[in-house]
Amino acid sequence: MNFVVVSSIGAVFMGIFALFVRMKAAKKPTNAKKIILPPVFMSSGALMYVVPQFRLSSMEILEAVVVGMLFSILLIKTSKFEIRENDIYLKRSKAFIFILVGLLVVRIGLKTILSATIDYGELSGMFFLLAFSMIVPWRVAMYLDYKKLYKKLHGQQ
Description:
The protein has about 160 residues and is mostly helical. It has helices spanning about 5-25, 30-40, 60-75, 95-115, 120-155, and strands spanning about 80-85, 85-90. About 15% of the residues are buried. The chain has one domain. It has 5 helices and 2 strands. Helix 1 runs antiparallel to helix 4 (about 95-115) and helix 3 runs parallel beside helix 5.
């Protein structure tokens, strides 16, 4: 079976998993640790760049980071917090589901198109970097929003 097909199927399952995690997270109060830890854990994936097959050129790095940061804007816009029952909760957003599915479709489409011209290892490295460049700004924005509400909730200036 083709690597692109297998990795695309994996991406679909990860997207479905992310939807369930997001819906479950909205039912419980959040904290700074829950916001910060996912990109920290994800950063271990950068070890893939130890293997020469996954290393990227400067232009590939730039392309992946820029696209990831652009995609993060959509996630930032749909991630808001609210104070409920004297705790901070992530608000549910109906748009988030459509945005996540849309990003997944775009990602699979790009992977299918780019796999014809870019080596599979480099493409894997680019998509990891794209995802990381999307998650880090999103989580930083979430953390800053959370801290504002935390200070409001606890009467700090």
